[in-house]
Write a structure and sequence with these properties.
This protein is of the alpha/beta class. It is 48% helix and 16% strand. α10 links the parallel β8 and β9.
């Protein structure tokens, strides 16, 4: 959500496993297994296709963000996967944002950076997720020049109780603005946290205070209702 006018500017595609007996499982519980077995490529491609297809029905100023595994970024067919997904869905490249973590850049650095550069040349946005949690954040900020950085929720949750966390978040926002990089604060859980970020001129926020995770069908209804309310207000 953009802070200036509370407009929904992007939706993040989240993977969940609906186990027949254990219920809905978080990707934390199974992503590593998918990566180790190589199944991540097939599932990752499916996620990108489905995300692009869903987003093609959303308002034209709303983008979709998809988390990409480091294993996917080291594979030669990531480019063709994204190109085909965009072609099939007719989604504009600028409406697709791929989120990566610094872990993706640590190994096979040059090859991963080359893939990311090629994706950006297609017009796709790149976001650096969990920013500030790794030792080399500033190094990769310079090398990658991402379109967005996402401030990790561990910092955001403490901005009201811990002066150091507040200072770090302020510095991240200031640095991003100086570099012309969009900045997103993750993990917003309270109105007070949201108010703090407004005062710092943070570009966008996400978290349970904004909305809990929704299915693709629920997102469509949610966006339609938001669009209708904005039109009525105008």
């Amino acid at each position: 959500m953009a802070l200036g006018n509370d407009h929904i500017t992007g939706i993040e595609a989240l993977l969940r496993w609906r186990h027949p007996t254990l219920g809905v499982r978080s990707p934390i519980e199974f992503i590593t297994i998918l990566e180790e077995t190589g199944v991540i490529h097939e599932i990752g491609h499916w996620i990108i296709r489905e995300a692009c297809k869903a987003a093609s029905d959303w308002p034209k100023d709303t983008r979709v963000a998809v988390n990409v595994s480091p294993v996917q970024l080291r594979h030669t067919n990531i480019l063709s996967c994204v190109v085909n997904a965009l072609k099939e869905s007719t989604l504009a490249p600028a409406r697709l944002e791929l989120e990566i973590t610094e872990t993706a850049l640590i190994s096979d650095n040059d090859y991963v950076l080359s893939n990311l550069k090629a994706l950006r040349e297609l017009g796709i946005r790149i976001a650096l997720d969990d920013f500030g949690t790794e030792y080399s954040s500033l190094t990769y900020l310079r090398k990658l020049s991402p379109d967005s950085i996402k401030i990790d929720g561990s910092f955001v949750r403490e901005v009201l109780a811990d002066a150091d966390s507040a200072s770090i978040v302020k510095s991240m926002i200031s640095l991003s603005r100086d570099l012309g990089i969009n900045v997103v604060a993750e993990g917003i859980e309270t109105a007070e946290q949201l108010s703090f970020l407004r005062r710092q001129n943070c570009d966008e926020v996400q978290g349970y205070f904004i909305s809990e995770p929704k299915s693709a069908k629920e997102i469509q209804a949610f966006l339609s209702s938001r669009h209708a309310s904005r039109f009525d207000a105008a």
